[in-house]
Structures are given as C-alpha cells and as structure tokens.
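@channel sequence for tomorrow's demo:
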Amino acid sequence: MTKFLWIGLLVWGAIGLNPTPSLAQTMVRQIASSAATGQQNATLPTIELSTGYGLTLNFIPTGEVIRKVWLDDPSQVGMDFDTNCPRSNGQEACEMGAMVIYLRRIVPITFPQLLKTGNHTMLTVITQNDSQQKVYRFQLVLKNGTPQYVTVNLVPDASSSTATRKPSPPEFLSALKAGLQIAEQNQQISRQQHLWSRLTRFENLVQRGMTIEQASQEAGVSLAVVNKLAEMGRRSTPVSP
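structure tokens (generated this afternoon):
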C-alpha cells in the first residue's frame, strides 16, 4: 500500500463523515450483518450493480477485515479494495486487512470452461474480527439505468449477542499505536507526512478525555483510517488466554 492509498482513504473517510443530504438519503443502503450471513432467514440480500456506476461494499461499521472474496462469474465484474488483495486461482486473498470492496462493470471477458450466469452472480466474502470468522453472501444483479444506491454499508445488529464490544479509549489507543508501528515498518506511512501529525494530535485529544469520534473530527483524520490502524494493531497482538 502506498502513501497515496492512505491519503485517498483519508479523503474518502472525510466524505463519508460529512455526506450531502441527497447522497445520505438516496445513494446509501444499509444491510444488517445477520441478513447477509444467513442468520435472519434463507433469503440472501440482493445488491444491484448498474452499468457506468461503481458499487462500494463497506465493512468498516462491523469492525471486520476481509480475508477472501469469491465471485462465481467474474466475466463482467471487476473488483478493487482499499488495500492490496492479490489474485490467486480465481479468488482474491486480502493479506493486509481490507475493509472496503469496490465493484464495477467491465467489458465482458471470455473464460474457457466458465459457465456464464447471465445478469446475476453470487458474491461471497469471508471476514474476520479477532478470532471469529463470518461468511457473507450476496446475490449480485447486473442492470442498466441509474442506481438507487452506490454504497452498501454492512452494519452489526444492535441486539446481536455477538456484536463486537466497543473498546475503551486506552485499548483503542494501544491498538492504534501498534497498527501505526506496523504501517511505518511496511512503509505505508512516514513521520514526514501530514497524516502522521494528525494521528499524533488524535492520540493526544483522546488521552485528554475526548471521545474517539470527536477527536477524529477535531484532528482532521477520518474514522476509517484510525479504525483500520487499530484493527491492524489488534491483529498483531496475541490474545490473552
């Protein structure tokens, strides 16, 4: 991951924190985690991908990182991620902990021995949060015309007993520092960047008693960035028995 990706994620997160009313009301859809993992019923959620428009699947609200992605018929759909996910044997393996998938229509490609599925296909996403893994499945429908939404937020169920416990500020900062150290070692960020100074200010504000959300806005750094760094830090720290 280059520094440009972190800058892009910062800008994307800032836009997500301050959406225009029209985008917030008409272009964003929310799907409960339990619906896409088959816990509510046997009917899987359908998501639509329109010609000429991209579709963002956002797993940041769940706190889960994407491990692998399968697309039953990849001949008409391209995929991208907010971090590096190298392709191997027809599947995407995300080693750095992606949390966002970007889908877009492409000029159809012919794959030998691959049966086409017409205007629909199955999308499967494997995620992980600490030691727990989840399997998400979506019916992806290809269509023409203006889309009803361009972003799908996967959100945890408020009443779910398996919902992730919100970490305390000290726990969050500890994970953030560990993730920041990993990002620096991997040359994903440097101390000379403005993002580093903003993250330092964010840490100071939280230490002074400001909430994570308030500190994010005050320091000018998106929640997407700090949550991603904290998740990297948590995955690098052994879980106590």
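heads up for whoever presents: Confidence is low (pLDDT under 50) at residues 1-25, 159-164.
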